[in-house]
Amino acid sequence: MRKQARTSDLRRRLVGVGGGLLGAVLCTVPADAAERIFFNYGLLGLSLPVSDLETYTRTGVMSERMAFLASLAGAKDVVGLRDALNTPLPFSQAQVAQLTYTPLGERTLQRIGNLLRTDTDNNSFLALRAASILAAGDPQGLTLLNFLRYYPLQTLRIDVAFGAQLAAEVGNAFDLGETTFSAIEKQADGTPSTAPPPAELGDPRRAGPFGTRVRPLVFANPRYAAAETWLKRASTPMIAADVYLPEGLTRPAPVVVISHGLASDRTTFAYLARHLASWGFAAAVLDHPGSDKQLAASIFSGSATSSGPGEFIARPQYVSSLLDELERLTRTDPLWRGRLDPTQAGIAGQSLGGYTALASGGAGLDKETIRLGCEKSGRLGDIVNPSLLLECGALNLPASAPTQLGDARIKAIFAVNPIGVALFGRKELARIAVPTLLVSANKDAFARPLLEQILPFSVLTTSEKYLVLARNATHFTPAIDPAETQSVLPIPAQFVGPSPEPYFFAALNALNLAFFKTHLAGETAYRAFLQPGYVRSLSQEPFGFSLVNSLDSPEIQRLIELERQKQFRVIQTGN
């Protein structure tokens, strides 16, 4: 009765203040709560009352039944269970409600629902969503124990065989990824040393000789009026960018477009734009309103919904529209004439911005790869590689969506933690004909390095390609703003990693500069900074850096082939 009263009271309060999405959930939530967890071992089934877990969290003493289940699981598997049951996740009730109604949130719950089943052995998606929202509204927050208290069915069934398969899959995937990462580092360390870069080139980690000036740019989106509804959701009538210009340069500056990732904006990589401008580049940092910081905050606050799959199309189109506008300005506006050369452009991007860079540089969307990689709702790969949950939104692109989004003005690609394994097949990655540098972080829990960067690198056919490994960096390291006290996305500290200042930012600045000087500005002397020895010298605790131009080691090839057979069949399509 105590659980039922709490659930009913919370339902009344939430309907009063939440409305909308919360009301839709709560109208279907029964007054029951989970009373037991049933562990399905095939022919054998064992149940554990939720009250046993509640007693354990209060006293630290296991019941006989719980101790027996713990012995079956192995003692090491329950170490820290007491803390895990009572540690709240950093999500408010409104955030949980909004997140679980986004396509990304729904796909996540569908996957988890394959492991946690209903009494009739069906996917528990609806019950999971209701329990998550209700538990997040409890004064104690969204804890595992509160989730069980508010689970709207009497029994939470756990498919132990599926769970064991999942645990083995995740463990093996990360072990294979770390083994491959280490093997590539070993190959890089074994590369013969070359002469150090000439001293007269300066230190690419430091600001260059030019002052910088920022010119905000807002212009009409030329594709908006004629766009279909699905694409308009990811677009706006006006496009905004900040263009960082070098002061005192006597020739047109090459352009580097910078594309931010999910829940960021054009200020995220201002440090990189300012650095490139100080060395003679015009760095144009775009806003992508269909996936920026403002939209993410609106989704979590309940005032907006996801922009949908159109973001995969809108992002590269924004790049082309920006280059079109810069070309127009250099022809017609005295303030811009002679300042930059948009026909010689590079692109740098991180995460979803890395996808944007690869797509703008020539890799088209492969609908067969998307279908094979995403159509099965029970894929374990989504949990092993969470970025697939975002990428598989492309399944909902209409047949009219364009697939070739490259721009011939893009002459070089620098992609940090790029995603896109479910979007590009081998054939499409082979379309990239310009110099390409990929950065991969071994602590990236969102875009798994082996799947999202190492395997795509292995199928690139461009003659100038680089793979930089960043040890101890995470998916979020390049985009952390140390001045911000709170992210739009409530990311646990262990996924954020160590502060990027000063060493990671300095290394990323140096690599971008050397790459674009060599392959965009045509100053080939800077190739000396794109050598394994120099990249290794950028290492400074806690970060380590390595560089390779190919994956020739038989051991690495064996590991890659093992991964292809297990997980990465989609990249073999389109041959």
UniProtKB/TrEMBL annotation:
The lineage of its organism: Bacteria, Bacillati, Cyanobacteriota, Cyanophyceae, Gloeobacterales. PANTHER family: PLATELET-ACTIVATING FACTOR ACETYLHYDROLASE, POLY(ETHYLENE TEREPHTHALATE) HYDROLASE. SUPFAM superfamilies: alpha/beta-Hydrolases (SSF53474). Residues 186-207 are annotated as: Disordered. The keyword Cell wall biogenesis/degradation does not apply. Keywords: Hydrolase, Lipid degradation, Lipid metabolism. This is Alpha/beta hydrolase. One of its GO terms (molecular function) is hydrolase activity. It comes from the Bacteria. InterPro entries: AB_hydrolase_fold, DUF1400.
